[in-house]
Amino acid sequence: MSLATAYPTKPAGSLPDSALGDVGTRLRRLRETALPSGALSGPRHARALDSLYAACRSASSENWDGYGARPVGASAFEHAKVFLQLLPTDASFPDVSVDPDGEIALEWYLAPRAVFSVSIGEEGLISYAGLFGWNKVNGVEVFAGAIPVAVLQSLRRLLSSARS
Question: Is-contact 103 111, C-beta < 8 A?
């Protein structure tokens, strides 16, 4: 089941809240401040933020997947939120999920051999992997308030192949 099916799109800040404990409290605070003036604007950006919050909310407690998954942390949420804000305006927004290690996964899936994925962790490291036909790319970059060049180039490569 996709996130879109499990968590229908609603305006930012309107999702019901069932996050528990300290992580839930931190996520609620982050959500309340997620739309400062001049930041994410328009329905497209609001949907991306809602998808991020829904994914993090569903993974906010220990063992959220029934197989020992770690909860997503507030820092990972904040890094992912900023990453989404920094996406180029012509970029499509990714599918958002949480990995069992607590990292936030952003994926652009266009076709079986046209995929790009980014995982963002608590420490601000971005792990990425892409498949562009028979060509592959992967690596780890530090996220310091700007999308790393290697990640941006890979995303542009994927999106330009879709336009061709």
Answer: no
